[in-house]
């Protein structure tokens, strides 16, 4: 395996899960698939449509998102919204993220001494 | 005419469970149309926008797999170890026993090198394939019904603990050897009793011996099983063990060889049903069984004697399966 391929595997492993945190956070205001995709990539999350769309349905089946069809506009869209349970999970995941970030930073400062 | 988008969506839907299709159909189309619209607004010609959007979504089969959320493997890492262990045990221990047993039975019926080899190979392939297939099928089923490793028989439900670590000190005999030491005599007793009634039209062994010698051998076999239990609990190789083992070996081997040599072992009526062409069946059977019995007994006596001597001198003993040696601290 080349260094590039190794790096990309590890990056993928590191990023896996961040999309969940981001989606649960963004969808506290209701949104539909494509709008979420736009928001996430504008915010700097590298996520592909073919990963995100199935993920939304999976989170819904886990009870972290609810969905409703909005037929008011010309193009009917399925809107997702984070449930209270999804909120709780997002909060837990984010505090874990902060803890890990601090832990990694601390590793550096320990090396400086 | 179906559009590119239709073709893409249908290809995805084909691999999705029916009850989810309507919803995914609507949602996926809207998402694609949204993306196309955004590209057109960005200045792309409509056809190119559709193509780019679909190419970005990628292989419809993979997308469908994502939606269906199905397992893309037969046996996951949770059950893999157990599956592999069971399969190895079946193929290396049970399969050879079955092959030898069936080949022996068939060769007794129709003795020729050709039958023996043919039967061995065909049994090996047929039974081996069945074992591998059914084991894998059962484990794939367990994987899909959500059975965790802890729930399988033979695993301890309370979870792993430090006391589960094997001691690796050379015990007199391991639990496996204890099981063999009990099962083997019991199997022989069962075979000895059953051959009188089943297996063949005429009993294989001489029924006259039921007056004394067969019951005597059954008692000796029971003593062999008792010896295994005694040795397991005693937990050490001593000279007493060597002597008891040797006495039991002689008690079994001497009468068996004597019965064989004086042609009282096999049932003459069963021997007369054998037709091995130019070969005289009785001589061959007698020779083979005497050889197996004597060599087996001698090997057993010598092995036990060697183990006892090593243990007495405190020589290092191999710990099975680790490549390391253990010396009993004296």
Automatic annotation (TrEMBL), chain A:
Stored Pfam families: PadR
The organism's place on the tree of life at top rank: Bacteria
InterPro entries assigned: Metal_resp_DNA-bind_regulator, Tscrpt_reg_PadR_N, WH-like_DNA-bd_sf, WH_DNA-bd_sf
Every Transcription regulator PadR N-terminal domain range: 26-88
Matching PANTHER family: PADR-FAMILY TRANSCRIPTIONAL REGULATOR, TRANSCRIPTIONAL REGULATOR RV3488
Protein name, as recorded: PadR family transcriptional regulator
UniProt organism field: Actinoplanes lutulentus
UniProtKB/TrEMBL annotation, chain B:
Keywords: Membrane, Transmembrane, Transmembrane helix
InterPro entries, sorted: Perm_prefix_1
Transmembrane segment boundaries: 86-105, 117-142, 175-197, 212-231, 243-261, 281-302
Keyword 4Fe-4S applies: no
UniProt KW Transmembrane helix keyword: yes
Domain of life assignment: Bacteria
Name of the protein in its database record: Uncharacterized protein
Organism of origin: Actinoplanes lutulentus
Lineage: Bacteria, Bacillati, Actinomycetota, Actinomycetes, Micromonosporales
């Amino acid at each position: 395996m080349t260094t590039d391929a190794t790096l990309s595997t590890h990056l993928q492993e590191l990023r896996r899960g961040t999309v969940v945190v981001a989606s649960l956070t963004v969808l506290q205001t209701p949104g539909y698939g494509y709008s979420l995709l736009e928001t996430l990539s504008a915010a700097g999350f590298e996520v592909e449509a073919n990963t995100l769309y199935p993920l939304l349905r999976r989170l819904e089946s886990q009870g972290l998102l609810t969905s409703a069809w909005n037929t008011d506009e010309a193009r009917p869209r399925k809107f997702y919204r984070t449930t209270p349970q999804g909120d709780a999970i997002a909060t837990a995941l984010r505090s874990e993220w902060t803890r890990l970030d601090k832990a990694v930073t601390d590793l550096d400062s320990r090396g400086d001494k | 005419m179906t559009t590119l988008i239709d073709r893409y969506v249908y290809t995805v839907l084909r691999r999705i469970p029916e009850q989810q299709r309507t919803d995914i159909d609507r949602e996926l189309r809207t998402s694609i149309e949204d993306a196309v619209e955004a590209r057109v607004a960005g200045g792309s010609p409509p056809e190119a926008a559709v193509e780019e959007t679909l190419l970005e979504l990628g292989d419809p089969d993979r997308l469908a797999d994502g939606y269906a959320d199905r397992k893309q493997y037969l046996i996951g890492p949770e059950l893999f170890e157990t599956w592999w262990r069971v399969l190895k045990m079946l193929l290396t221990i049970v399969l050879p026993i079955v092959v030898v047993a069936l080949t022996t039975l068939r060769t007794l019926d129709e003795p020729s090198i050709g039958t023996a080899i043919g039967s061995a190979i065909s049994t090996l392939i047929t039974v081996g394939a069945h074992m591998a297939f059914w084991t894998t099928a059962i484990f794939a089923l367990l994987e899909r019904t959500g059975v965790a490793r802890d729930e399988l028989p033979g695993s301890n439900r309370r979870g792993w603990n430090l006391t589960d670590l094997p001691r690796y000190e050379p015990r007199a005999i391991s639990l496996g050897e204890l099981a063999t030491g009990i099962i083997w005599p019991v199997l022989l007793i069962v075979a000895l009793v059953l051959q009188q009634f089943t297996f063949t039209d005429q009993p294989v062994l001489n029924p006259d011996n039921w007056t004394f010698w067969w019951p005597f051998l059954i008692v000796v076999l029971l003593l062999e099983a008792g010896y295994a239990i005694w040795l397991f609990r005693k937990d050490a190789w001593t000279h007493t063990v060597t002597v008891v083992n040797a006495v039991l070996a002689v008690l079994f081997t001497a009468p068996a060889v004597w019965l064989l040599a004086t042609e009282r072992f096999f049932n003459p009526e069963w021997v007369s049903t054998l037709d091995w062409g130019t070969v005289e069946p009785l001589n061959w059977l007698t020779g083979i069984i005497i050889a197996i019995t004597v060599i087996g007994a001698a090997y057993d006596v010598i092995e036990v004697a060697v183990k006892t001597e090593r243990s007495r001198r405190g020589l290092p003993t191999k710990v099975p399966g680790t490549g390391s040696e253990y010396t009993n601290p004296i």
